[in-house]
UniProtKB/TrEMBL annotation:
Entry keyword set: Membrane, Transmembrane, Transmembrane helix
Membrane-spanning segments: 28-46
Protein name: Protoheme IX farnesyltransferase
Organism, as annotated: Sphingomonas canadensis
Keyword Membrane: yes
Tree of life domain: Bacteria
Length: 54
C-alpha cells in the first residue's frame, strides 16, 4: 500500500486494517505469555523433583 492508498481514519477499510494489526499483536502476545507460563511451570516442576543442581 502506498501513501496514496492509505485508508482514511474512520473508514471501513481503515477499521479493518487496524483490527487486523491488533489481532496480529494479540496473537503474538498470547504466544509469548503461553511460552512464559510453560517456562515457569517447567522450572517449578524441576525444583520440586530435585532436578535443580545445588
Amino acid at each position: 500500500m502506498t501513501q496514496d492508498e492509505t485508508p482514511l481514519p474512520g473508514t471501513d477499510a481503515h477499521t479493518r486494517e487496524v483490527r487486523a494489526r491488533q489481532a496480529s499483536r494479540a496473537r503474538v502476545m498470547a504466544l509469548l505469555l503461553g511460552a512464559f507460563v510453560i517456562l515457569v511451570f517447567a522450572i517449578a516442576i524441576a525444583k520440586m523433583t530435585g532436578g535443580a543442581a545445588h
